[in-house]
Design brief:
Two copies of one chain form a homodimer. In chain A, 11% of the residues lie in helices and 30% in strands. Chain A has 183 residues and is mainly β. Chain A has a four-stranded mixed beta sheet, with helices on one face. Strand 5 of chain A pairs antiparallel with strand 7 of chain B, so a sheet runs across the interface.
Chain lengths: 183, 183
């Protein structure tokens, strides 16, 4: 799955915007972006991008998403340190989905401390957790240079407290709100 | 990337619905579903699923999406013959994105005749086509057992005519309409 390009040059200069006009942004000005590990091929996560986040991603070769819950740019890794170095940016046939090939720093993309976000597998009508936590999120975010406000919050049916990551765990979802689930 | 499970059993019986309640459907009752080739790890496409399509997918182990443009179930391969045998169904940490591991029949997931839909790569501020057409879509859909109404339509800047696939090529997109881009 390895895909190598020149990793020094931006994919598009900050002044270049024509390529952004090809994209069919949704009513909220967003497109889904799938991040795939460039080495293993594992799907790490799916998040959303607005025009500004994609432009910054292309210019810096570092993944920047848009947090729907916080309505601001989400520089992946800004809290966790788990940034994503972008190897390639692809667009689908309908021009409304982005695919990033990335190098995942720290080998952990998910805010739960797992390698990727898709850690539950449907088995006999049950969502079974099939991927291990590689590192305690409390540890990951304790080292954060830019910690978020601390709170107590229920995540995945577990009550946890004492760190910000928990504020962002289940807010990406269905009803038009979203979050930086992986931060 | 190979991921093998028992390929005979459904992931959930048709009577089982509890697992569907865990999913955070959007306001339109949909979730994005990413399809990944179980052998190569290649990301084939992203489409949408409603509750019914996901339930059928789990019961039949064959990918069924929901066409936003046509507002009906889209049984992937119904026109092209390029069905997807589902190897596993995963859910992300926020319970609002589905990941399918699939075997792509015919080795072509995209309605353009390419292996996958992400055939354009951002290079120097331009979306460069980097993947070849493996088979002429006109051929693929000429063999369809269930052809759609024929029309002439502009696809990807090319005027083509004579087959239905063209009706569905660019309608998945941003403004809340969508289609079975791959059919």
């Amino acid at each position: 799955m390895s895909e190598r390009h020149n990793t020094e040059m931006p994919f598009a200069s900050p002044e270049s915007t024509h390529w952004l006009d090809s994209i069919r942004w949704n009513d909220a000005g967003l497109v889904p972006a799938v991040a795939q590990d460039s080495e293993s091929g594992q799907i790490l996560m799916m998040a959303w991008m607005n025009r500004e986040s994609l432009q910054e991603t292309a210019a810096t070769r570092t993944a920047v998403y848009f947090s729907r819950s916080r309505q601001r740019l989400w520089r992946k890794g800004e809290s966790s340190g788990h940034t994503q170095r972008v190897i390639s940016i692809r667009l689908d046939c309908d021009e409304d989905v982005i695919l990033l090939s990335v190098e995942q720093l720290g080998g952990i993309a998910c805010h739960t401390g797992r390698a990727h976000c898709f850690y539950r597998t449907l088995t006999g009508g049950v969502w079974e957790t099939t991927d291990a936590v590689l590192r305690d999120p409390a540890e990951i975010y304790a080292e954060a240079s830019d910690p978020e406000p601390v709170s107590s919050h229920t995540v995945m049916g577990q009550r946890v407290s004492g760190h910000s990551v928990m504020d962002q765990s289940t807010n990406k979802g269905g009803q038009g709100v979203e979050g930086k689930a992986n931060e």
